[in-house]
Write a structure and sequence with these properties.
With about 260 residues, the chain is mainly α. Helix 1 packs parallel to helix 3 (about 70-85). It folds into two domains: about 1-185, MFS general substrate transporter like domains (Growth Hormone, Chain: A); about 190-255. It contains ten helices and no strands. It comes from Photinus pyralis. Keywords: Membrane, Transmembrane, Transmembrane helix.
Length: about 260
């Protein structure tokens, strides 16, 4: 996007650029449902971790792939979206095992604010890396951080409180009592007709669609617009483009 400074080694018109930017979301869309099913079958920890690890690896190889073929890059970006799409659904399975019902809204707010904080940090960091080291290092650094995070995730995180040998007896008792006899059901029948004819469900779908449209449009187009149309330099683009995510992070915590 527009935070990336590079000598114009890629002769991509606006149509090709659109394909590159949007290809991630085609893959991302597919695994939104599949991610939930896989998490119920194999556990949220493993699906979430795998999604981040593969995404990190694909990010690292993206500069090399881009120099070979734009169409190969589009395929890699779509594959990236496939694995990234599993992460959001898998988080809910982790919460179901770990978080008492009365604390879930607070935990969700904190977790989602982390997405905005990550974007807040990454946009100006990308501008800095591109200016000082070259655009390829955006992918090397962020992909490397993802792989390092994956190692820590595998060591620290457990699928459920009973599998965590470091949890205190009091905390374990509190979680078990709060969850009661609740068990995460891994095989069940979905009332699809009732779901798709529910007015509240459609209200949530429409609201989420509108929120996601604005969020991802800003994420993919704002830096490019600021740099190419408003003629901001790289550092200014990185700082100003990050402001919406600062506001998102704050409001997600206080509302």
């Amino acid at each position: 996007n527009g935070t990336i400074a590079y000598i114009r080694e890629f002769d991509w018109d606006s149509k090709i650029q659109g394909y590159v930017l949007s290809s991630f979301f085609y893959g991302y869309l597919i695994t939104q449902v599949a991610g939930g099913w896989l998490s119920a079958k194999f556990g949220g920890k493993y699906i979430f971790g795998t999604g981040i690890a593969v995404t990190g690896a694909l990010t690292i190889i993206s500069p090399f792939v881009a120099k070979q073929s734009v169409y190969l890059l589009i395929a890699v970006r779509a594959l990236d979206g496939l694995f990234e799409g599993m992460t959001y659904p898998s988080v809910y399975m982790i919460w179901a095992e770990w978080v008492p019902p009365l604390e879930r809204s607070r935990i969700a707010s904190m977790a989602f604010s982390g997405c905005y904080i990550g974007t807040l940090v990454t946009i100006p960091l990308s501008a800095l890396l591109a200016e000082k080291l070259g655009w390829e290092y955006i992918f090397y650094v962020t992909g490397g951080i993802a792989l390092l995070w994956f190692l820590l995730w595998c060591i620290i995180v457990k699928d459920s409180p009973t599998k965590d040998r470091y949890i205190s007896n009091s905390e374990l008792s509190y979680i078990q009592e709060a969850l009661g006899e609740q068990q995460v059901c891994r095989t069940f029948s979905h009332p699809w007709k009732s779901i798709f004819t529910s007015v509240p469900v459609w209200a949530i779908i429409v609201a989420t669609f509108g929120d996601s449209w604005g969020f991802y449009t800003l994420l993919t187009q704002l830096p490019m617009f600021m740099k190419d149309t408003l003629n901001f330099d790289l550092p200014s683009t990185g700082i100003v483009a990050a402001i919406p995510y600062l506001v998102l992070a704050i409001t997600s915590l206080v509302t």
